[in-house]
Amino acid sequence: MNRYLLPLSVLGTVAGGAVLLRDYVAGGSCPSKATILGKTVIVTGANTGIGKQTALELAKRGGNIILACRDMEKCEAAARDIRRETLNHHVSARHLDLASLKSIREFAAKITEEKERVHILINNAAVMRCPHWTTEDGFEMQFGVNHLGHFLLTNLLLDTLKASAPSRIINLSSLAHVAGHMDFDDLNWEKRTYDTKAAYCQSKLAVVLFTKELSRRLQGTGVTVNALHPGVARTELGRHTGMHSSAFSSFTLGPIFWLLVKSPQLAAQPSTYLAVAEELEGVSGKYFDGFKEKPPAPEAEDEEVAQRLWAESARLVGLELSGGSSPQ
Questions:
Q1: 114 by DSSP, 3-state: which?
Q2: What is the pLDDT of residues 125-154, one digit of tens each?
Q3: What would the pLDDT profile of 257-287 be if each residue is shown by its tens digit?
Q4: Of 50, 309, 48, 41, nearest to 173 (Cα)?
């Protein structure tokens, strides 16, 4: 029997070390222990993946959490899971379809009618490398959901966020934004041959540009906004990429993915950090890669591009350029 103890001990040490290495590479847990007792939080796309785990983390810290999702059956189930796990009964599910301007306006109207305060808005929902789909209003799906939907939602909730200051907006972008380019002649891919990867990168670049311009407009209001690359996570977001569709890719790349790709729970830690960390009070207009502030792509810091995107986005979603988009 003793002859098996050493190999088993070595195996256990190696396995434990591998898990620790993976967690180190993935960034680890949120370094802030701050609580948000009684604060109202909205998380879009919170029925699964990073969004659900972010909602759970913030529910643990005492927040009043609103899960904003398209699929209400999954959203209600996620809310029940979070209430059961955290024993926080202030977790509710609301319908929000970011591919529908009508749905976004209805959601925002209900929130502003029912809630005097919204302290944290986490624009988490996204679609990634989907086929050439369009939204209800005719926008290319990735640009429509990842940018335009959140652009309209945020603007419609700005007055409530200002009334709740100090308050925070967190926009989930991606490292993929560095490969993006804003083609103002064809933002919705109506003239070019559709490239789903390029469309995704453009949408995530738009998120960073939106963050920069919104931060400029919110100076002096007590509302901050930052963009975030949470890391690559094992979520449903990558279901259209085909990354795991072949036995070859799963076998050859599996160990690399295991080391570098985060669990949803770990990938939710940076969002949690940006939402609660006391040391980030007043920090705005920044791009974070995990827990660390980093410079985004050069195009993401182009003020003229950011202002042009704002004006074009406002036109596309039917938002008056002055309405709800500048500090009072």
A1: helix
A2: 999 999 999 999 999 999 999 999 999 999
A3: 445 566 989 999 999 999 999 999 999 999 9
A4: 50
Sign of CA dihedral 86, 36, 229, 102: positive
Which amino acid would we find at residue 310? W
pLDDT, one tens digit per residue, over 221-260 is 999 999 999 987 554 444 444 444 455 444 444 454 445 5
The residues annotated with a catalytic role in the active site are: 200
- Scanning the chain, the segments in alpha helix (DSSP H) are 2-26, 49-60, 72-86, 101-114, 141-143, 150-163, 196-217, 247-260, 264-267, 269-276, 303-317
**What pTM did the predictor assign?**
0.85
CA 102/CA 121 separation, integer angstroms: 19
Question: CA 318 → CA 123, 146, 225, 298, 321, distances in Å?
Answer: 20, 17, 22, 29, 9
How far is Cα 32 from Cα 275, in angstroms, rounded to an integer?
Answer: 10
Within the chain, what is the greatest distance between any pair of CA atoms? Answer: 77
Residue 154 near residue 169 (C-beta atoms within 8 A): yes
Confirm if 205 and 177 have CB atoms less than 8 A apart.
yes
CB-CB neighbours of 293 under 10 Å: 12
Tokens (6 digits) for 249: 């890719």
**Cis peptide bond prior to 166, omega within 30° of 0:** yes
Ramachandran category for residue 233: left, alpha or beta (phi over 0 → left; psi -120 to 50 → alpha): beta
Separation between Cα atoms, residue 247 and residue 251, nearest integer Å: 6
